[in-house]
From TrEMBL:
Record family assignment: Belongs to the BamA family.
Organism, scientific name: Aurantimonas manganoxydans (strain ATCC BAA-1229 / DSM 21871 / SI85-9A1)
Domain POTRA: 39-106, 107-184, 187-275, 360-433
Compartments, record wording: Cell outer membrane; Membrane
Superkingdom of origin: Bacteria
Binding partners and assembly: Part of the Bam complex.
Range of residues in the leader sequence: 1-22
Protein name: Outer membrane protein assembly factor BamA
Length: 818
């Protein structure tokens, strides 16, 4: 046993000695590896560089002599050098204490060239690509540029454009970068269809969205270009359309755009779930904030029990309540609408709950994405600024205002935490769009002083120099007319919501009974009283000349002088300057200038021109139209007065008013009804009486079927205008059956009634028609929302008229009814 034990001890000792020896050997090896991997670098040798200085390369590496450098350090240095974009290849190795850095420099871009492009200009493509002259060439960047160019073509409806890139060596390590483009055919939208819609047909919903099916006018309107972002925007537009018409449960199940490559056309299918239609149930206000008088807030509510549910009315009520609470000193009050659906009665009861919101302040407004529009143009649409109490409702209202400006394709507003827990950063991201327009128009007008073919050219900029200012320059030309105008508006005069501006114009006409020439302008300022009510005041001045040769001396005897009975030269004639016919020519014949018209009243007024009218005017406008250009619902009411006599030759008070009401009679067939009414009175003061040209001259503008100056007082068949007018009309417009609505054609049926009466010359010889006899007509019309502006053809048959009225049953011209 003892011998065995000794043997075991000896084996254990040998094993232990072997283990110690192995461990010592492994440690030495590990130490050697560590020393190799973290060797001290005494020198950094940069090779292969020609443009980039060696010290610059060393600086990018962030490795210096005397430093222990591991393989991980070398790998990191390689990544840093590649990230500069200066090198196409980088290799690092170590030889003893020397770190060898071998680089291949990127070539320098000499020129960026585009070949094969005609639909997108070079300037647009240069702005889209990242590769620029005198920069380092990068294949990764050029591939990204290829995608950017393809995106630019997709945005104009050419999604099958093919783009490739190549380089051209020109020596000295420089290259030209060339993008070869095959533009391909224009991609169209063949059809847009809806699935699941029962309340509204496809044709109505197509009018709601911005995307359009391709048609004969698509090359002008450019609204048949598929873009996923535009489709997303149309989805939101559809939601708002349904939400504002009672369908609170509406949702879009899917929207799919399929490209048929054989036809190079998209087929868009939008599947919807309309849900039930709701009305407003009980509407109440509750408050948990001490001191809030809820009873006084009910007047701010836009949601009325029994009316069709509308998300817009809820939003407007939130803004009204929030503003009222803020004005009452409750800056942090938070209004939340709580809806309670009753599925049996299909009503939604709304309870506006007022709670004390978190005490958060706006740290700053951060504007991003605006390259043209100035920051202050965006900031001024916010009712909150840095340091104010943060209110989500007012922020969302500002977003809506920015969208309404039509300066941006997209507006998004988000928030981020500020430097302190009670601070909020409001971030506004915008995508700008073109705001300038060149308009060309043409047509033919009938009746009045501007009868005949007309053409108009205009340049409009809604965001002039990025300052949010409006400017328009236009010129119109007709067979016998010339019109020129310039308008400018600053929507935030003196930093407030005051729209100030001016207009200047000149018009010339040689048609009708006599020539006319008007030159004038105005300075105006408008202030919003509420969201719907606006007040405007203006100073106006104009000079008017009437008659052949603008009312200059009229001598029927060519190359002769007019003399009186004593032989004195008489230098001015207009009509007969001497009722006794003592003004004769050298042969002794009476010299009487021929009359301009058959009306002595008009002739005398022509002889007394030119006139200068200096006046001050004001107007109140109430506008709740859902769309000013194409209204379907709402009111437009305007009333004002003009006081002439602030210098000049005229002394009168002119009062006018007009009102229009639009209502969508049938949602499915898009039938729109409208009622219009208007009236006016002009009265002289100062004892001189009215000039005849201060009267109202009316005709087809108030009762269609009559000439431009076809109704009212006349002398010897010539219109002398009236002191008063009144009119009313009813109209219904509708899409033409069997014709695509995308073409912009609508039919109309209408009935008009009105009268023009009263004259200070009613006792003069030959004056008739001074009484308020009624004129009426009924007719049909064809309206075309053309790319050149709204054009309209009317046929109106007079139902009530006077024998001396002048008729114009057929008329064709630009459409403007309110």
């Amino acid at each position: 046993m003892r011998a065995g034990t000794n043997i075991m001890r000896a084996v254990s000792a040998v094993a232990l000695s072997s283990t110690v020896l192995a461990a010592a050997t492994l440690g030495a090896q590990l130490a050697a590896v560590t020393v190799a991997e973290a060797a001290v670098v005494n020198r950094i040798d940069v090779r292969g560089n020609s443009r980039v200085e060696a010290d610059t390369v060393r600086g990018f590496m962030q490795i210096s002599a005397g430093q222990n450098v591991t393989e991980a350090d070398q790998d990191q240095a390689v990544r840093r050098l590649f990230s500069t974009g200066l090198f196409s290849d980088v290799r690092i190795s170590q030889s003893g204490g020397t770190l060898i850095v071998q680089v291949d420099e990127n070539q320098i871009v000499n020129q960026v060239l585009f070949q094969g492009n005609s639909k997108v200009k070079d300037e647009q493509l240069i702005a889209a690509v990242q590769t620029q002259p005198r920069a380092a060439y990068s294949s990764a960047t050029t591939q990204a540029d290829v995608e950017a160019i393809q995106a630019a073509y997709t945005s104009i409806g050419r999604s099958d454009a093919i783009v490739s890139v190549r380089t051209q060596e020109i020596g000295e390590n420089r290259v030209n970068v060339i993008y070869d483009i095959q533009e391909g055919d224009r991609t169209k939208i063949e059809s847009i269809s809806f699935v699941g819609n029962n309340a509204f047909g496809d044709s109505r919903l197509k009018q709601v969205i911005a995307l359009r099916e391709s048609g004969i006018l698509s090359f002008i309107q450019r609204n048949d270009i598929y873009d996923p972002e535009r489709l997303r925007t149309d989805e939101e537009t559809l939601r708002r359309f349904y939400y504002n018409r009672g369908y609170a449960d509406f949702r879009i199940v899917s929207s799919v755009a399929e490209l048929d490559e054989s036809q190079n056309s998209y087929f868009i299918t939008i599947t919807v779930d309309e849900g039930e239609r709701y009305s407003f149930g009980n509407v109440t206000i509750d408050s948990t904030v001490a001191g809030v008088d809820t009873e006084s807030l009910y007047g701010e509510i836009e949601t009325q029990t029994g009316e069709v549910y509308s998300a817009k009315d809820v939003e407007d009520t939130l803004v009204n309540l929030t503003n009222s609470l803020a004005n009452a000193g409750f800056a942090f009050a938070q209004v939340t609408p709580r809806g309670d659906r009753d599925f049996a009665s299909r009503t939604i009861a709304i309870d506006y709950v007022i709670d004390q919101g978190p005490r958060a302040y706006v740290e700053r407004l951060e504007i991003r994405g605006n390259t043209k529009t100035r920051d202050y143009v965006i900031r001024r649409e916010f009712d909150v600024s840095e340091g104010d109490a943060f209110n989500q409702v007012l922020v969302q209202r500002a977003k809506q205002r920015l969208e309404d400006l039509k300066y941006f394709d997209k507006v998004s507003v988000s928030t981020a935490p500020g430097a302190e827990p009670d601070r909020v950063i409001v971030i506004v991201d915008v995508v700008e769009k073109a705001t300038g327009e060149l308009s060309l128009g043409g047509g033919y007008t009938t009746g009045g002083e501007s009868s005949g073919p007309v053409a108009e050219i205009g340049v409009t900029e809604r965001n002039f120099l990025g300052r949010g200012q409006f400017i328009k320059v236009s010129a119109g030309f007709g067979a016998d007319t010339r019109n020129y105008s310039l308008s400018f508006t600053e929507p935030y005069f003196l930093g407030r919501r005051l729209a100030a501006g001016f207009d200047v114009y000149r018009s010339e006409s040689s048609s009708g009974d006599y020539d006319s020439e008007r030159t004038g302008g105005d300075i105006r300022i408008a202030a919003p009283i509420t969201e719907d009510l606006t007040a405007q005041i203006a100073y106006n001045i104009k000079q008017e000349k009437f008659g052949d040769d603008n009312g200059t001396t009229y001598n029927q005897f060519s190359n002769s002088q007019l003399v009186d009975g004593s032989g004195n030269v008489f230098e001015s004639t207009c009509g007969n300057p001497d009722p006794n016919n003592n003004i004769v020519d050298p042969n002794g014949r009476p010299a009487v200038a021929p009359p301009y018209t058959d009306s002595p009243i008009i002739n005398q007024a022509i002889c007394e021109s030119p006139y200068l009218t200096s006046s001050v005017s004001y107007a109140l406008t109430y506008n709740t139209l859902d769309n000013t250009n194409d209204p379907r619902n709402g009111f437009f009411i305007q009333a004002g007065q003009e006081f002439a006599g602030v210098g000049g030759d005229a002394n009168f008070v002119k009062t006018t008013g007009k009102a229009s009401y639009f209502h969508l009679l049938n949602e499915e067939y898009d039938v729109i009804g409208s009622l219009n009414a208007g009236g006016g009175n002009v009265t002289s003061f100062g004892g001189d009486g009215l000039r005849v040209f201060d009267n109202f001259f009316k005709g087809q503008d108030i009762v269609r079927g009559f000439d431009y100056k076809g109704i009212g007082p006349r002398q010897n068949g010539v219109s002398i205008g009236g002191n008063n007018y009144a009119n009313a009309s009813a109209e219904a417009t509708f899409p033409l059956p069997g014709i695509s609505r995308d073409l912009g054609f609508r039919g109309a049926v209408f009935a008009d009634a009105g009268s023009l009466w009263g004259s200070e010359y009613e006792n003069d010889p030959g004056v008739i028609g001074v009484d308020a006899s009624l004129r009426a007509s009924a007719g049909v019309g064809l309206i075309w929302a053309s790319p050149f502006g709204p054009l309209r053809v009317n046929y109106a048959h007079p139902l009530a008229k006077e024998d001396f009225d002048e008729l114009q049953e057929f008329s064709f011209g630009f459409s403007s009814r309110f």
